[in-house]
Specification:
By secondary structure, the chain is of the alpha/beta class. 32% of the residues lie in helices and 17% in strands. The strands form six sheets. The protein has a six-stranded antiparallel sheet with strand order 11-8-15-6-7-12, covered by helices on one side.
Length: 556
Protein backbone atom coordinates (compact mmCIF):
# COMPACT_ATOMS: atom_id res chain seq x y z
CA UNK A 1 0.00 0.00 0.00
CA UNK A 2 1.15 3.52 -0.73
CA UNK A 3 -0.16 6.50 1.25
CA UNK A 4 0.68 10.01 0.17
CA UNK A 5 -0.08 13.29 1.92
CA UNK A 6 -0.14 15.60 -1.00
CA UNK A 7 -1.35 19.14 -0.42
CA UNK A 8 0.78 21.69 1.32
CA UNK A 9 -0.66 24.51 3.43
CA UNK A 10 1.51 27.15 1.84
CA UNK A 11 2.23 28.35 -1.66
CA UNK A 12 -0.46 27.21 -4.04
CA UNK A 13 -0.55 23.43 -4.32
CA UNK A 14 3.15 22.59 -4.36
CA UNK A 15 4.28 19.35 -2.68
CA UNK A 16 5.39 19.60 0.93
CA UNK A 17 9.11 19.99 1.61
CA UNK A 18 9.65 16.34 2.48
CA UNK A 19 7.82 15.19 -0.68
CA UNK A 20 9.23 17.66 -3.20
CA UNK A 21 12.18 15.53 -4.40
CA UNK A 22 10.03 12.41 -4.75
CA UNK A 23 7.29 14.30 -6.61
CA UNK A 24 9.77 15.84 -9.04
CA UNK A 25 11.43 12.47 -9.71
CA UNK A 26 8.12 10.63 -10.08
CA UNK A 27 6.35 13.11 -12.34
CA UNK A 28 9.14 14.60 -14.45
CA UNK A 29 11.97 13.37 -16.62
CA UNK A 30 11.97 10.32 -18.83
CA UNK A 31 8.68 8.55 -19.45
CA UNK A 32 8.63 5.39 -17.36
CA UNK A 33 7.32 2.06 -18.51
CA UNK A 34 4.72 0.05 -16.60
CA UNK A 35 7.20 -1.02 -13.92
CA UNK A 36 4.82 -1.11 -10.94
CA UNK A 37 2.72 -4.14 -11.90
CA UNK A 38 3.26 -5.72 -8.47
CA UNK A 39 2.26 -2.64 -6.52
CA UNK A 40 -1.18 -2.42 -4.93
CA UNK A 41 -1.76 1.07 -3.64
CA UNK A 42 -4.11 3.62 -2.16
CA UNK A 43 -3.53 7.37 -2.04
CA UNK A 44 -4.97 9.77 0.50
CA UNK A 45 -4.25 13.47 0.01
CA UNK A 46 -4.05 16.17 2.64
CA UNK A 47 -5.52 19.36 1.18
CA UNK A 48 -7.71 22.39 1.64
CA UNK A 49 -10.42 23.46 -0.80
CA UNK A 50 -9.53 27.11 -0.30
CA UNK A 51 -6.51 26.50 -2.55
CA UNK A 52 -7.02 26.52 -6.29
CA UNK A 53 -5.08 23.29 -6.85
CA UNK A 54 -6.96 21.27 -4.24
CA UNK A 55 -5.09 18.01 -3.61
CA UNK A 56 -3.36 18.31 -6.96
CA UNK A 57 -0.28 16.39 -5.80
CA UNK A 58 -2.30 13.44 -4.51
CA UNK A 59 -4.38 13.28 -7.71
CA UNK A 60 -1.28 13.42 -9.94
CA UNK A 61 0.54 10.72 -7.95
CA UNK A 62 -2.56 8.48 -7.99
CA UNK A 63 -2.87 8.83 -11.79
CA UNK A 64 0.85 8.25 -12.37
CA UNK A 65 0.91 5.15 -10.18
CA UNK A 66 -1.93 3.68 -12.23
CA UNK A 67 -0.32 4.71 -15.53
CA UNK A 68 2.90 2.96 -14.52
CA UNK A 69 1.20 -0.34 -13.79
CA UNK A 70 0.11 -0.01 -10.19
CA UNK A 71 -3.20 -1.54 -9.09
CA UNK A 72 -5.44 1.01 -7.39
CA UNK A 73 -7.25 -0.51 -4.41
CA UNK A 74 -9.63 2.40 -3.75
CA UNK A 75 -10.31 5.81 -5.33
CA UNK A 76 -7.95 8.57 -4.25
CA UNK A 77 -9.05 10.13 -0.95
CA UNK A 78 -9.32 13.91 -0.98
CA UNK A 79 -8.87 15.16 2.56
CA UNK A 80 -10.18 18.68 3.14
CA UNK A 81 -8.68 20.47 6.12
CA UNK A 82 -11.15 23.32 5.62
CA UNK A 83 -13.81 20.96 6.98
CA UNK A 84 -12.94 17.81 8.95
CA UNK A 85 -10.04 15.92 7.46
CA UNK A 86 -10.40 13.15 10.06
CA UNK A 87 -13.86 12.29 8.73
CA UNK A 88 -12.51 12.27 5.17
CA UNK A 89 -9.75 9.90 6.21
CA UNK A 90 -12.13 7.67 8.15
CA UNK A 91 -14.39 7.29 5.11
CA UNK A 92 -11.39 6.47 2.89
CA UNK A 93 -9.98 4.06 5.49
CA UNK A 94 -13.26 2.16 5.74
CA UNK A 95 -13.01 1.48 2.00
CA UNK A 96 -9.35 0.54 2.26
CA UNK A 97 -9.51 -2.04 5.07
CA UNK A 98 -11.67 -4.60 3.25
CA UNK A 99 -9.45 -4.33 0.17
CA UNK A 100 -6.33 -4.88 2.24
CA UNK A 101 -7.99 -7.69 4.11
CA UNK A 102 -8.85 -9.41 0.85
CA UNK A 103 -5.37 -8.84 -0.50
CA UNK A 104 -3.42 -10.08 2.51
CA UNK A 105 -5.45 -13.08 3.67
CA UNK A 106 -4.07 -16.55 3.05
CA UNK A 107 -5.81 -18.86 0.59
CA UNK A 108 -7.03 -20.89 3.56
CA UNK A 109 -8.98 -17.82 4.72
CA UNK A 110 -10.56 -17.16 1.33
CA UNK A 111 -13.99 -18.31 2.42
CA UNK A 112 -14.04 -16.12 5.52
CA UNK A 113 -16.22 -13.09 4.74
CA UNK A 114 -15.44 -10.97 7.80
CA UNK A 115 -13.04 -8.08 7.51
CA UNK A 116 -10.30 -7.74 10.11
CA UNK A 117 -11.65 -5.29 12.72
CA UNK A 118 -9.74 -2.04 13.15
CA UNK A 119 -9.28 -0.49 16.55
CA UNK A 120 -7.04 2.49 17.15
CA UNK A 121 -4.69 2.17 20.11
CA UNK A 122 -4.06 5.18 22.35
CA UNK A 123 -0.45 6.19 21.80
CA UNK A 124 1.77 6.66 24.84
CA UNK A 125 5.41 7.50 25.51
CA UNK A 126 7.33 5.84 28.29
CA UNK A 127 7.98 8.58 30.82
CA UNK A 128 10.92 8.69 33.23
CA UNK A 129 10.80 11.23 36.06
CA UNK A 130 14.17 12.73 36.92
CA UNK A 131 15.79 14.90 39.55
CA UNK A 132 14.49 18.46 39.34
CA UNK A 133 18.06 19.72 39.82
CA UNK A 134 18.75 18.66 36.22
CA UNK A 135 16.32 21.30 35.01
CA UNK A 136 18.94 24.02 35.41
CA UNK A 137 20.77 22.79 32.28
CA UNK A 138 17.73 23.08 29.98
CA UNK A 139 18.64 26.26 28.13
CA UNK A 140 22.37 25.62 27.99
CA UNK A 141 21.94 23.34 24.97
CA UNK A 142 20.69 26.33 22.95
CA UNK A 143 23.48 28.41 21.48
CA UNK A 144 23.80 30.13 18.14
CA UNK A 145 24.98 27.01 16.32
CA UNK A 146 22.67 24.01 16.29
CA UNK A 147 25.40 21.38 15.99
CA UNK A 148 24.13 20.06 12.65
CA UNK A 149 25.42 20.53 9.12
CA UNK A 150 21.94 21.49 7.95
CA UNK A 151 19.52 23.98 9.49
CA UNK A 152 15.95 22.85 8.87
CA UNK A 153 12.64 22.22 10.64
CA UNK A 154 14.16 19.32 12.59
CA UNK A 155 17.37 21.20 13.36
CA UNK A 156 16.58 24.91 13.82
CA UNK A 157 19.08 27.39 15.16
CA UNK A 158 18.68 30.00 17.87
CA UNK A 159 18.16 33.56 16.67
CA UNK A 160 17.87 36.57 18.96
CA UNK A 161 15.32 39.29 18.36
CA UNK A 162 17.36 42.33 17.35
CA UNK A 163 14.58 44.81 16.48
CA UNK A 164 10.86 44.99 17.19
CA UNK A 165 8.58 47.88 16.36
CA UNK A 166 4.87 48.55 15.86
CA UNK A 167 3.90 49.39 12.27
CA UNK A 168 0.37 50.69 12.89
CA UNK A 169 -0.29 54.17 14.24
CA UNK A 170 -1.94 54.70 17.66
CA UNK A 171 -5.18 55.51 15.79
CA UNK A 172 -5.48 51.86 14.66
CA UNK A 173 -7.41 49.29 16.68
CA UNK A 174 -5.20 46.57 15.24
CA UNK A 175 -1.53 45.75 15.46
CA UNK A 176 1.26 44.72 13.10
CA UNK A 177 4.81 43.97 14.21
CA UNK A 178 8.06 44.49 12.33
CA UNK A 179 10.60 42.08 13.80
CA UNK A 180 14.20 41.31 12.91
CA UNK A 181 15.99 38.08 13.82
CA UNK A 182 19.77 38.33 14.15
CA UNK A 183 21.28 35.40 12.21
CA UNK A 184 24.91 36.56 12.31
CA UNK A 185 27.18 33.63 13.12
CA UNK A 186 24.44 31.00 12.90
CA UNK A 187 25.26 29.69 9.42
CA UNK A 188 21.67 30.39 8.39
CA UNK A 189 21.27 31.91 4.93
CA UNK A 190 18.22 32.90 2.90
CA UNK A 191 17.18 34.20 -0.50
CA UNK A 192 14.71 36.92 -1.32
CA UNK A 193 11.22 35.38 -1.36
CA UNK A 194 11.95 32.56 1.10
CA UNK A 195 9.93 31.80 4.25
CA UNK A 196 11.20 31.71 7.81
CA UNK A 197 9.86 29.06 10.19
CA UNK A 198 9.59 30.20 13.81
CA UNK A 199 9.12 27.95 16.82
CA UNK A 200 7.44 30.22 19.34
CA UNK A 201 6.17 29.72 22.87
CA UNK A 202 2.72 29.56 24.39
CA UNK A 203 1.60 32.45 26.57
CA UNK A 204 2.33 32.01 30.28
CA UNK A 205 -1.38 32.22 31.20
CA UNK A 206 -2.18 29.46 28.69
CA UNK A 207 0.54 27.28 30.21
CA UNK A 208 -0.63 27.91 33.77
CA UNK A 209 -4.17 26.91 32.84
CA UNK A 210 -2.92 23.68 31.26
CA UNK A 211 -0.83 22.87 34.35
CA UNK A 212 -3.89 23.35 36.54
CA UNK A 213 -6.01 21.09 34.31
CA UNK A 214 -3.41 18.31 34.31
CA UNK A 215 -3.13 18.49 38.10
CA UNK A 216 0.66 18.04 38.18
CA UNK A 217 3.48 20.06 39.68
CA UNK A 218 4.85 22.54 37.10
CA UNK A 219 8.48 21.81 37.97
CA UNK A 220 8.06 18.06 37.41
CA UNK A 221 11.19 17.12 35.44
CA UNK A 222 10.82 14.21 33.03
CA UNK A 223 12.02 12.60 29.83
CA UNK A 224 9.99 10.70 27.22
CA UNK A 225 11.02 7.55 25.36
CA UNK A 226 9.72 5.56 22.40
CA UNK A 227 11.09 2.25 23.72
CA UNK A 228 10.43 0.00 26.68
CA UNK A 229 12.79 -0.42 29.63
CA UNK A 230 14.47 -3.34 27.85
CA UNK A 231 15.07 -1.28 24.71
CA UNK A 232 12.42 -2.86 22.51
CA UNK A 233 10.28 -0.33 20.59
CA UNK A 234 6.87 0.59 21.94
CA UNK A 235 3.96 -0.48 19.80
CA UNK A 236 2.61 2.30 17.66
CA UNK A 237 5.23 3.39 15.18
CA UNK A 238 3.61 6.78 14.70
CA UNK A 239 5.10 8.24 17.88
CA UNK A 240 6.96 11.44 17.11
CA UNK A 241 10.59 11.70 18.28
CA UNK A 242 10.43 12.88 21.89
CA UNK A 243 11.49 16.40 22.84
CA UNK A 244 14.49 16.85 25.21
CA UNK A 245 14.13 16.26 28.96
CA UNK A 246 12.56 19.28 30.64
CA UNK A 247 10.09 20.45 33.25
CA UNK A 248 6.36 20.19 32.68
CA UNK A 249 6.15 23.98 32.43
CA UNK A 250 8.82 24.03 29.70
CA UNK A 251 7.16 21.15 27.83
CA UNK A 252 3.80 22.93 27.81
CA UNK A 253 5.44 26.23 26.87
CA UNK A 254 7.55 25.01 23.94
CA UNK A 255 6.15 21.76 22.64
CA UNK A 256 2.38 21.40 23.19
CA UNK A 257 -0.27 22.89 20.90
CA UNK A 258 -2.82 23.91 23.52
CA UNK A 259 -5.01 26.29 21.53
CA UNK A 260 -5.99 24.29 18.44
CA UNK A 261 -9.25 22.32 18.42
CA UNK A 262 -8.49 18.71 19.43
CA UNK A 263 -8.87 15.97 16.85
CA UNK A 264 -11.29 13.10 17.43
CA UNK A 265 -8.42 10.77 18.30
CA UNK A 266 -7.50 13.15 21.14
CA UNK A 267 -11.09 12.99 22.46
CA UNK A 268 -10.88 9.19 22.54
CA UNK A 269 -7.60 9.39 24.45
CA UNK A 270 -9.19 11.77 26.97
CA UNK A 271 -12.20 9.45 27.26
CA UNK A 272 -9.91 6.55 28.14
CA UNK A 273 -8.70 8.48 31.21
CA UNK A 274 -11.95 10.17 32.27
CA UNK A 275 -13.01 8.99 35.74
CA UNK A 276 -16.56 10.29 35.25
CA UNK A 277 -18.48 7.77 33.05
CA UNK A 278 -20.79 10.49 31.74
CA UNK A 279 -17.84 12.58 30.58
CA UNK A 280 -16.21 9.53 28.97
CA UNK A 281 -19.43 8.71 27.10
CA UNK A 282 -19.81 12.29 25.91
CA UNK A 283 -16.22 12.39 24.61
CA UNK A 284 -16.68 9.09 22.77
CA UNK A 285 -19.93 10.34 21.24
CA UNK A 286 -18.26 13.49 19.90
CA UNK A 287 -15.56 11.33 18.34
CA UNK A 288 -18.03 8.85 16.80
CA UNK A 289 -19.73 8.90 13.37
CA UNK A 290 -23.03 9.51 15.18
CA UNK A 291 -21.59 12.65 16.76
CA UNK A 292 -20.15 14.05 13.52
CA UNK A 293 -22.54 17.01 13.23
CA UNK A 294 -22.26 17.85 16.91
CA UNK A 295 -18.45 17.75 16.70
CA UNK A 296 -18.55 20.03 13.65
CA UNK A 297 -20.71 22.57 15.50
CA UNK A 298 -19.52 22.32 19.10
CA UNK A 299 -15.83 21.89 18.33
CA UNK A 300 -14.89 23.15 14.87
CA UNK A 301 -17.36 25.98 14.26
CA UNK A 302 -16.92 27.24 17.83
CA UNK A 303 -13.11 26.94 17.59
CA UNK A 304 -12.89 25.28 20.98
CA UNK A 305 -9.30 24.88 22.07
CA UNK A 306 -7.78 21.85 23.76
CA UNK A 307 -7.64 23.57 27.13
CA UNK A 308 -11.29 24.62 26.80
CA UNK A 309 -12.23 21.00 26.12
CA UNK A 310 -10.18 19.76 29.08
CA UNK A 311 -11.89 22.35 31.29
CA UNK A 312 -15.27 21.04 30.05
CA UNK A 313 -14.28 17.46 30.98
CA UNK A 314 -12.28 17.93 34.21
CA UNK A 315 -12.28 14.24 35.18
CA UNK A 316 -10.08 13.42 32.15
CA UNK A 317 -6.54 13.35 33.55
CA UNK A 318 -4.31 11.52 31.07
CA UNK A 319 -0.77 10.62 32.20
CA UNK A 320 2.02 12.69 30.64
CA UNK A 321 3.02 9.93 28.21
CA UNK A 322 -0.52 9.88 26.79
CA UNK A 323 -1.03 13.63 26.92
CA UNK A 324 2.03 14.42 24.78
CA UNK A 325 1.60 11.41 22.46
CA UNK A 326 -2.16 11.34 21.85
CA UNK A 327 -3.87 14.45 23.24
CA UNK A 328 -1.78 17.57 22.61
CA UNK A 329 -0.26 17.82 19.12
CA UNK A 330 3.28 19.09 18.82
CA UNK A 331 3.44 22.88 18.60
CA UNK A 332 4.26 23.54 14.95
CA UNK A 333 6.46 26.28 13.51
CA UNK A 334 4.72 29.32 12.12
CA UNK A 335 5.82 30.36 8.64
CA UNK A 336 6.28 33.95 7.50
CA UNK A 337 7.26 35.39 4.14
CA UNK A 338 10.63 37.03 4.75
CA UNK A 339 10.29 40.78 4.25
CA UNK A 340 13.96 41.55 3.56
CA UNK A 341 16.66 40.81 1.01
CA UNK A 342 20.07 39.35 1.91
CA UNK A 343 21.59 41.98 -0.41
CA UNK A 344 20.39 44.60 2.06
CA UNK A 345 20.25 42.61 5.30
CA UNK A 346 22.58 39.56 5.08
CA UNK A 347 22.69 39.06 8.87
CA UNK A 348 19.02 39.77 9.58
CA UNK A 349 15.73 38.10 8.70
CA UNK A 350 12.85 40.58 8.73
CA UNK A 351 9.29 39.50 9.51
CA UNK A 352 6.06 41.48 9.10
CA UNK A 353 3.37 39.96 11.32
CA UNK A 354 -0.23 41.03 11.95
CA UNK A 355 -1.47 40.34 15.47
CA UNK A 356 -4.14 37.63 15.67
CA UNK A 357 -6.65 38.71 18.32
CA UNK A 358 -10.24 37.49 17.92
CA UNK A 359 -13.21 36.76 20.14
CA UNK A 360 -14.61 33.28 19.52
CA UNK A 361 -18.27 32.29 19.73
CA UNK A 362 -17.57 30.71 23.13
CA UNK A 363 -16.55 34.12 24.48
CA UNK A 364 -12.85 33.26 24.69
CA UNK A 365 -10.31 35.72 23.31
CA UNK A 366 -8.13 33.86 20.82
CA UNK A 367 -4.60 35.23 20.75
CA UNK A 368 -2.32 34.02 17.99
CA UNK A 369 0.54 32.10 19.58
CA UNK A 370 3.37 33.46 17.45
CA UNK A 371 1.96 36.89 16.60
CA UNK A 372 1.42 37.58 20.31
CA UNK A 373 4.92 36.35 21.13
CA UNK A 374 6.37 38.66 18.48
CA UNK A 375 4.37 41.65 19.70
CA UNK A 376 5.59 41.07 23.27
CA UNK A 377 9.18 40.14 22.40
CA UNK A 378 12.09 42.09 23.90
CA UNK A 379 14.75 43.10 21.34
CA UNK A 380 18.47 43.05 22.05
CA UNK A 381 18.56 46.82 21.52
CA UNK A 382 16.59 47.16 24.76
CA UNK A 383 17.92 44.30 26.88
CA UNK A 384 20.81 41.83 26.95
CA UNK A 385 18.26 39.29 28.16
CA UNK A 386 16.41 39.56 24.85
CA UNK A 387 13.78 37.29 23.34
CA UNK A 388 14.92 34.49 21.03
CA UNK A 389 13.40 31.64 19.05
CA UNK A 390 14.52 28.53 17.18
CA UNK A 391 14.23 29.39 13.48
CA UNK A 392 14.99 27.93 10.06
CA UNK A 393 14.50 28.91 6.43
CA UNK A 394 12.17 27.18 3.99
CA UNK A 395 12.97 27.71 0.34
CA UNK A 396 10.28 29.14 -1.91
CA UNK A 397 9.65 29.35 -5.64
CA UNK A 398 8.53 32.95 -5.15
CA UNK A 399 11.47 34.52 -6.96
CA UNK A 400 12.18 37.60 -9.02
CA UNK A 401 12.92 36.95 -12.72
CA UNK A 402 16.58 36.24 -13.43
CA UNK A 403 16.48 38.95 -16.10
CA UNK A 404 16.20 42.22 -14.17
CA UNK A 405 14.69 43.99 -17.21
CA UNK A 406 11.52 41.81 -17.17
CA UNK A 407 8.40 43.78 -16.06
CA UNK A 408 6.89 42.72 -12.72
CA UNK A 409 3.47 43.25 -11.15
CA UNK A 410 3.19 42.78 -7.37
CA UNK A 411 -0.14 42.53 -5.53
CA UNK A 412 0.04 42.35 -1.74
CA UNK A 413 -2.41 44.07 0.61
CA UNK A 414 -1.70 44.18 4.35
CA UNK A 415 1.08 41.84 5.43
CA UNK A 416 0.99 40.43 1.90
CA UNK A 417 3.43 43.26 1.28
CA UNK A 418 6.16 41.31 3.14
CA UNK A 419 7.92 39.48 0.27
CA UNK A 420 7.58 42.53 -1.99
CA UNK A 421 9.47 44.64 0.53
CA UNK A 422 12.23 42.04 0.07
CA UNK A 423 11.83 42.22 -3.72
CA UNK A 424 12.17 46.01 -3.68
CA UNK A 425 15.21 45.91 -1.43
CA UNK A 426 16.72 43.44 -3.89
CA UNK A 427 15.92 45.64 -6.88
CA UNK A 428 17.33 48.73 -5.17
CA UNK A 429 20.58 46.88 -4.41
CA UNK A 430 20.77 45.64 -8.01
CA UNK A 431 20.18 49.15 -9.33
CA UNK A 432 22.90 50.56 -7.09
CA UNK A 433 25.22 47.87 -8.51
CA UNK A 434 24.48 49.11 -12.02
CA UNK A 435 21.77 46.69 -13.16
CA UNK A 436 19.11 47.87 -15.59
CA UNK A 437 15.64 47.39 -14.13
CA UNK A 438 12.44 46.74 -16.01
CA UNK A 439 9.14 48.43 -15.08
CA UNK A 440 7.49 47.41 -11.80
CA UNK A 441 4.11 48.15 -10.25
CA UNK A 442 3.05 47.40 -6.68
CA UNK A 443 -0.64 47.20 -5.74
CA UNK A 444 -0.87 47.59 -1.96
CA UNK A 445 -4.02 47.81 0.14
CA UNK A 446 -4.88 48.74 3.71
CA UNK A 447 -7.82 50.18 5.65
CA UNK A 448 -6.78 53.79 6.20
CA UNK A 449 -3.71 55.89 5.38
CA UNK A 450 -3.65 57.24 8.94
CA UNK A 451 -3.82 53.83 10.62
CA UNK A 452 -2.26 50.85 8.87
CA UNK A 453 -0.29 52.10 5.88
CA UNK A 454 2.77 50.01 6.79
CA UNK A 455 6.24 50.92 5.46
CA UNK A 456 4.80 54.02 3.76
CA UNK A 457 8.07 55.99 3.84
CA UNK A 458 10.06 53.01 2.57
CA UNK A 459 7.68 52.44 -0.34
CA UNK A 460 7.86 56.08 -1.38
CA UNK A 461 11.66 55.88 -1.14
CA UNK A 462 11.69 52.85 -3.47
CA UNK A 463 9.74 54.92 -6.01
CA UNK A 464 12.05 57.93 -5.65
CA UNK A 465 15.17 55.81 -6.13
CA UNK A 466 13.80 53.91 -9.13
CA UNK A 467 13.44 50.43 -7.58
CA UNK A 468 9.66 50.73 -8.04
CA UNK A 469 8.08 52.37 -11.10
CA UNK A 470 4.59 52.86 -9.70
CA UNK A 471 2.89 52.47 -6.33
CA UNK A 472 -0.90 51.99 -6.39
CA UNK A 473 -2.65 52.01 -3.00
CA UNK A 474 -6.25 51.01 -2.22
CA UNK A 475 -7.90 52.14 1.04
CA UNK A 476 -10.87 50.06 2.12
CA UNK A 477 -12.01 52.31 5.01
CA UNK A 478 -11.22 55.75 3.67
CA UNK A 479 -13.62 57.58 1.44
CA UNK A 480 -17.26 56.95 0.48
CA UNK A 481 -16.69 53.49 -1.00
CA UNK A 482 -14.55 50.49 -0.09
CA UNK A 483 -11.67 50.08 -2.47
CA UNK A 484 -9.55 46.93 -2.69
CA UNK A 485 -6.52 45.99 -4.78
CA UNK A 486 -8.67 44.22 -7.40
CA UNK A 487 -10.54 47.50 -8.05
CA UNK A 488 -7.24 49.29 -8.61
CA UNK A 489 -6.19 46.49 -10.95
CA UNK A 490 -9.24 47.09 -13.12
CA UNK A 491 -8.39 50.78 -13.28
CA UNK A 492 -4.92 49.80 -14.54
CA UNK A 493 -6.17 47.02 -16.81
CA UNK A 494 -4.48 48.37 -19.95
CA UNK A 495 -1.10 48.77 -18.19
CA UNK A 496 -1.33 45.26 -16.73
CA UNK A 497 -2.12 43.78 -20.14
CA UNK A 498 0.79 45.64 -21.73
CA UNK A 499 3.24 44.40 -19.08
CA UNK A 500 2.04 40.81 -19.45
CA UNK A 501 2.30 41.13 -23.24
CA UNK A 502 5.93 42.15 -22.77
CA UNK A 503 6.69 38.93 -20.89
CA UNK A 504 5.98 40.35 -17.45
CA UNK A 505 5.60 38.36 -14.24
CA UNK A 506 2.70 38.73 -11.80
CA UNK A 507 3.04 37.98 -8.08
CA UNK A 508 0.25 37.73 -5.49
CA UNK A 509 0.74 37.41 -1.74
CA UNK A 510 -1.81 37.29 1.07
CA UNK A 511 -5.14 35.77 2.02
CA UNK A 512 -6.11 32.73 -0.09
CA UNK A 513 -9.82 32.69 0.74
CA UNK A 514 -10.74 36.23 -0.22
CA UNK A 515 -8.13 38.48 -1.76
CA UNK A 516 -6.25 35.93 -3.88
CA UNK A 517 -9.49 34.57 -5.36
CA UNK A 518 -10.75 38.06 -6.17
CA UNK A 519 -7.42 39.00 -7.74
CA UNK A 520 -7.43 35.80 -9.80
CA UNK A 521 -10.92 36.56 -11.13
CA UNK A 522 -9.87 40.14 -11.89
CA UNK A 523 -6.79 38.96 -13.76
CA UNK A 524 -8.99 36.63 -15.83
CA UNK A 525 -11.34 39.55 -16.63
CA UNK A 526 -8.44 41.81 -17.63
CA UNK A 527 -6.94 39.16 -19.92
CA UNK A 528 -10.33 38.48 -21.48
CA UNK A 529 -11.28 42.11 -22.05
CA UNK A 530 -7.89 43.57 -22.97
CA UNK A 531 -6.97 40.63 -25.16
CA UNK A 532 -10.41 40.39 -26.78
CA UNK A 533 -10.52 36.69 -25.86
CA UNK A 534 -13.44 34.46 -24.99
CA UNK A 535 -13.61 33.09 -21.45
CA UNK A 536 -11.99 29.71 -22.20
CA UNK A 537 -9.05 31.28 -24.06
CA UNK A 538 -8.55 33.81 -21.26
CA UNK A 539 -8.54 30.97 -18.74
CA UNK A 540 -6.03 29.09 -20.88
CA UNK A 541 -3.73 32.10 -21.00
CA UNK A 542 -3.84 32.55 -17.22
CA UNK A 543 -3.11 28.82 -16.79
CA UNK A 544 -0.15 29.15 -19.14
CA UNK A 545 1.19 32.03 -17.07
CA UNK A 546 1.06 29.73 -14.03
CA UNK A 547 2.58 26.75 -15.83
CA UNK A 548 5.44 28.88 -17.15
CA UNK A 549 6.21 30.33 -13.72
CA UNK A 550 5.11 33.86 -14.63
CA UNK A 551 2.08 33.94 -12.29
CA UNK A 552 3.24 33.09 -8.78
CA UNK A 553 1.22 33.10 -5.57
CA UNK A 554 2.36 33.03 -1.94
CA UNK A 555 -1.00 32.60 -0.23
CA UNK A 556 -2.29 31.22 3.04
Amino acid sequence: MFEFGGECRYGDGEPTDNAARFYKWFTEGEEKEAWLQNLHYGVFGLGNRQYEHFNKVAVVVDENLAAQGGKRLVPVGLGDDDQCIEDDFTAWRELMWPELDQLLRDEDDATTPACTPYTAAVLEYRVVFNDAADASVEDKSWNNANGHAVIDAQHPCRANVAVRKELHTPASDRSCTHLEFDIAGTGLIYETGDHVGVYCENLSETVEEAISLLGLAPETYFSMHTDKDDGTPLSGGSLLPPFPPCTLRTALTRYADLLSSPKKSALLALAAYASDPAEADRLRHLASPAGKDEYAQWMVASQRSLIEVMAEFPSAKPPLGVFFAAVAPRLQPRYYSISSSPRMAPSRIHVTCALVYDKTSTGRIHRGVCSTWMKNSVPSAKSDDCSWAPVFVRQSNFRLPIDTKVPILMIGPGTGLAPFRGFLQERLALKEDGAELGPSVLFFGCRNSQMDYIYEDELNNFVEKGALSELVVAFSRQGPTKEYVQHKMMQKASDIWNMLSQGGYIYVCGDAKGMARDVHRTLHTIVQEQGSLDSSKAESMVKNLQMNGRYLRDVW
